[in-house]
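User: Quick sanity check before I run a bigger batch. Here is a single chain. Can you write out its predicted 3D structure?
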Amino acid sequence: MTAAAFPPGVPPVLAGQVIAVTGACQGYGRTISAALARAGASVVLVGDNSETLAAAASVLEAGGGTAVPIQADVSVPLDWLSAQNRVLEIFGALHGIVHLADRRAHTNFTMLSEGEWMDLFNNNVKSSVAIAQIVRRRLGGTWLTLVGPHLDERGLQVHPQRGALRGLVEHGHDEDLRLNLVLPGRASSGDESLDRPLADAVLALATPALLHLRGTVLEVPLPAAPRGRVVDPALLL
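Assistant: Done. Predicted structure follows.
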């Protein structure tokens, strides 16, 4: 989690960048946060479990990175706005946001209750639209990368979510937003080495060399996780 992987005298590719990661206390949020910290970014860990966030931030700090935990329920727009304002108070800037919009259903489509559907909608679609809108109003130039519903989720309920996120990303240029979408091949394994291809895709989109990219949807194949190792992030909340 330090800059040691970079050649001597060469600054990390994301040095000086402040990047917020939602859902940062579990699953892909942890892996992505670690990758961004290794690349030199100051990482803001956003989530709704203060103790887990603090522990994750301590790990990044111990490895030589810069990490700040901020508790917020990003499915509530005012919570996200409060977190965003806190980032600006601490760092004076917010260059990018990685938003985990990958909540999974616990039941099949036929048995999905209204409450479960609304939970999926709020955590995956509503939160993404709200963050994009707040960024557009207050932070011109800040990029937003969404991590959408996993490609191994086959229930009918996942297609309207993916479709909404694709539409948001592909037409974000209408509002001069830099939006991209990454779709993991499966849920997080909890093993950083197995989940690294997803973090690499997010990291590539964050690099200054690719700042011009917007409206991109990347499907990221991942190696199969050992049986029993795949972690549903929703179960860790």
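Strands lie at 18-22, 42-47, 66-71, 96-100, 143-147, 178-184, 216-220.

User: Great, the batch can go ahead then.
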